[in-house]
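Re: [ENG-882] Designed sequences occasionally contain unexpected residues at chain ends

Forwarding the minimal case from QA. Structure tokens:
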């Protein structure tokens, strides 16, 4: 079983700057409290093939995660796929960014979650939790990006 969750938010910053902020996955702990630690491999600007290795805490359990950047089209598209072997993974995820009037950016985020082994029984719970938090997740992205990017 697999399923998708998504969120949409408008950030009061220019699309190029929001793209740069989101493309650097090392910023994820600023808006995702489940991310305890993250590193970029190689330690160079994000490109297709870059891997972000993280330790996350879900449902009280710490797990190691690895996401590979699969598409990067500045300043409008970022895609990733989880390459780690966990019971529930993000088969595909991404951000679509759209420039808006007044130097604002619309951000659409999505993740397609997939269960493996026992995770086939758990993926529904993970999706439910992710969908319930989707609006809050979008709000945290907005707040973190606006705090990190100087207004013009």
């Amino acid at each position: 079983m697999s399923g998708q969750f998504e969120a949409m938010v408008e950030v009061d910053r220019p699309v190029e700057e929001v793209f740069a902020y989101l493309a650097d996955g090392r910023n994820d702990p600023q808006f995702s409290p489940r991310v305890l630690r993250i590193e970029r491999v190689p330690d160079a600007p994000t490109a297709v093939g870059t891997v972000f290795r993280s330790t996350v805490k879900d449902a009280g359990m710490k797990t190691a995660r690895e996401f590979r950047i699969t598409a990067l089209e500045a300043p409008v598209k970022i895609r990733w796929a989880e390459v780690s072997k966990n019971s529930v993974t993000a088969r595909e995820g991404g951000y679509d960014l759209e420039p808006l009037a007044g130097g604002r950016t619309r951000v659409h985020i999505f993740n397609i979650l997939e269960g493996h082994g026992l995770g086939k029984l758990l993926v529904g719970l993970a999706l439910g939790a992710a969908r319930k938090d989707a609006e809050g997740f979008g709000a945290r992205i907005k707040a973190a990006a606006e705090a990190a990017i100087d207004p013009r």
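QA comment: On inspection the terminal residues look reasonable. The radius of gyration is 15 Å. Proposing we downgrade this to a documentation issue.
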